Amino acid sequence: MFDFLIHGFDVALSPLNLGLALLGALLGTLFGALPGIGPINGIAILMPLAYTLGLPAESALILLAAIYTGAEYGGRMSSILLNVPGDAGAVMTTLDGHPLAKKGLAGPALGLSAVSSFVGATIAIIGLTLFAPLLAEVAVMFGPAEFFALMVFAFASMSVMMGKDPVKTAIGAVLGILIGTVGVDSSTGVLRYTFGLPELYDGIDFVVMIIGLFAISEILLMLEHANRKDGNDGLPPLGRVFVSLKEVLACKWTMGRSGLIGFIIGILPGTGASVGGAVAYTTEKRLSDKDNSFGTGNMRGLAAPEAANNASAVGSFVPMLTLGIPGSGTTAVLLGALMLYNITPGPMMFSERPEVAGGLIASLYIGNIVLLALNLPLAGVFARVLTIPRWVLVPGIAILAFVGVFQLHSNLAAIYLMLIIGVFGYLLRKLGFSLAPVILGYVLGGLMEQNLRRALSISGGDLGILWQSGISLGLWIAALALLLLPWLLPKLWQAKTSKA
Amino acid sequence: MKINKGLSTYASMLALTGGLLAASGVQAQSEDTECIAPAKPGGGYDLTCRLAANGLDKTGMIDTPMAVTYMPGGIGAVAYNHVNGVRDDDPNLIVAASTGAAVNLALGKFGQYDADDVRWLGALGVDYGAIVVNADAPWQSLDELMKDLKANPGDIAFGAGGTVGSQDWMKAALTAKSADLSPRKLKYVSFEGGGEALAALLGDHIQVFTGDLSELKSQLESGKIRVLASLSEERMGGPYADIPTAAEQGYDVQWPIWRGYYMGPNVSDEAYQTWVQRMKELSESQKFAELRKDRGLFPMSRFGPEFNDYVLDQVDQFESLAKEVGLKQ
């Protein structure tokens, strides 16, 4: 049964492919670390190169898959060090990762996130190896109604993030949803909030949103404080460099749970690492945030989204390899690469082209070990980035992002938009809003709306479709429980104790 | 010196990526040929540009490789405006387009410019629409599906990767129309890309998927779907040989999805003719035939003024259909 995998390790361990996995891991880490490129664009730009170089199919796929997994490792770096998420999956990583860096624990934070990424990805790769065809059957059971219920569940699970100022969290999420509605309406083709500007037809790009909201607003905050001499431009003291075994072990269940959550969500076509990270983080906060320290630099709050986003990335290979259906934007591009080689993914691929299917899965195992080996010792080196004054670092990142975004749009409109969103983000921060709900609203709101409208056009407007299937009913109940239990449980507890 | 080490590591990381980006940026500004893909990297337009770039490169018809630049926005409108307003006479610039662009032009989505505002160059390949159902579905032929659809239009949900009014929707609308059913009665669900729609078909959430032949190859092999009809003039070869056309089942629907190019309105006749000649030669060469096949495309030979007329005709047709179903006044 696992012949393809044994064959795959044969393929993946050849010197050329091993070298490509290494190169891919490095490049991917780089693409993920620099906001503005991200895995999709990195792969799309390198794909023609791999093809032109005449690499055989399995080698090209190994290179591209290594870039993809590497990017999920890299995305955490600017999240932790600069509070600017490197890619979509790393938004939640900023919440506890950056506070840890501020405490002088940048090195351990990077180390822990590398280990979490490794654990999450490994869980997902094992799941992929053992259950891929079975899981694909489950994935297609998710139709629009089930996805809508899943989004409701995701929003309900965000309620735990309400924290000190629930109203502001809710307003932030709504603002994010609003921003997500800009562009061509995906079901009727009607233009919404585009003000006659074709540049807005496609909606507001994720990179534009992230760089504007996080990086530009940060620069504006810095400018505001530029003349204030408080003797310190925000440099955190650099404490110890390596994560301790005790810290890693303390997070072992967090990593396991979050890896599983991320993998399951990654399998579903259309949801991505950002949803996986968000659900894992909020679940973990609920389960293990005893002293309410999530958001202030809790190690578990860092381990959860990191394990989940890597697991999601691997999970999205399941529908791609078994059904030929991309589970994420990046796997859609990878699918294009396969077509270029005249390989049609699907159940037949495991028997007809075992060197491709097996080689890819084997290279995921190897790539992951390479990435851990690369990232653990280097954590200290990367952490030293923080010794560069922030007034050099953050504008530097923004300039790189400008170049990257311009390269991908050949158009200044995206840059202007980024600046406008930056001012908007600055105002939000001045008013005491947290940015994570805005981004989550922006990502989840679109998915939620699209799936609601799809479900309703299937049912002809009958709302019953939304809770008809067992899957969606289960998700609704779980969402309700998430919202009601924190409020009900203490009351029940009180009633019980007063009786006694 | 530890600080310096960290700094230099990071600096070299930045330099590497910066260099990568800069290198491709510089390439685009030189005198060499360029193809604009009016979308983000990795999509259909990217592949259309690469088809020309790789073909011209492999056949040795141009000396330096053609640069591919991305200009997403407005489903192609941003690039259309750019070529009309800024680089209207660039003799080295071609822009990727497809049937989808013609649909958007027909709907007036490209702003102030019309279909005859650019010089249509030619198409290097074509794909065809297909009517697909789940392998477990009750319908064995297009006729059975259509009769059922006419009786109970509310029970059969069509789905595809584009919005109402997009080229994916047009396939469903024209099919309904060929059975004398108003497209307005059609239950149509739009997804984000053909892959999601296909997943919904496999999971039985929609009953009919109006996709493209080339994206169905792996599903055909796995036996999970049944293609009731291809929307082509005649049966296609290879793995698609067993799929009947809609026409042979008595429904007059054709939906070619061409992958072609246009140039700026003020490009000289000489430059235009050079490109027409180039495209013609390319599409006839043996090496290119292989490239085209790898991408799941079928040959299409319409170039220069003939192609120009073809696109303008198509846009007219789409416009009247759009008016008929109330998408456009």
Automatic annotation (TrEMBL), chain A:
The keyword Transmembrane helix applies. The chain crosses the membrane at residues 12-37, 43-68, 109-132, 138-158, 170-191, 203-223, 260-281, 323-344, 356-376, 388-408, 415-445, 465-489. Residues 18-440 form the DUF112 domain. It holds the Pfam family TctA. The keyword Translocase does not apply. Keywords: Membrane, Transmembrane, Transmembrane helix. This is Tripartite tricarboxylate transporter permease.
